[in-house]
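Amino acids appear as letters; backbone shape is given numerically. Here is one record.
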Amino acid sequence: MSTSAPDGFFSDASMMRRVHRERAVALSGPRALLMQAAHPLAVFGLLAHTSALDEPYERLARTAETMNTIAFGSRAEAERLTRRVRAMHKRVSGRLSEPVGPYPAGTPYRADDPELLLWVLFTLLDSALVVYRKYVGALSRAQEAALWEDYKLIGGLFGLSREEMPDTLAELDAYRRRMLEGDELFVTDWARRRAREIVLSPPVPWQARALLETANFVTIALLPDTIRAQYGFSPLPPAALRRALVSGGAQYVRRAVIPFLPDRLRLVPSARAA
């Protein structure tokens, strides 16, 4: 494996590569998607227009491919891909036809709205961090700050200016509290129905059902409490038991599985080729 990426945005020493090289971080995708769908304007501005919740696994695959290209590919590849996404975003705009949560009918939305882009960027980062901490290992505050710096570069590729993103990790923490404790998030009936179908009735072969149900249990358990409650996922084990199940399994994976896996199983292919 190389020690630098002269033609890419990130080096092997970057936190971006350290986190996203791990296959376990793929578990963060469904969580991020459900968090994104908890924002009504994101549903109409970003998700409904791309059939993200009608074809969730295709959406997750595209998102993973995009992040892998940015993290491990060349600058030219990353810029070409994100330029295409920005062009798609520019074509999507409209107004709510009816009131949705705190948003009255007629509220404008557009896919390149900086607030929506920031929410999507945050859900990707927050979900990757939650899963990495659970299943790979702890990160220091400085390492998390370095990862946020890397994500700000990604935000720029998708059209966000530095001024439109929290500058420091402390400011990002404040943004997280504002979004999760405020009234901007509201799970619509459509998002709730589609999310429950995705989690409870996934369109996969029966052979893969047990594995996917395990992944979906992790998705639900790791969602922020306020968002999980809005989706109405139940029945779930009591909070203490849920934490024990998820944390116990996570500790086993983190201590007894991940450290001993060969790179070909532990790391994504693009990380091994970078």
Observations:
- The two ends are 6 Å apart (CA to CA).
- Residues 252-258 have pLDDT under 50 and may be disordered.
- The beta strands are 93-95, 108-110.
- Residues 15-273 form one domain.
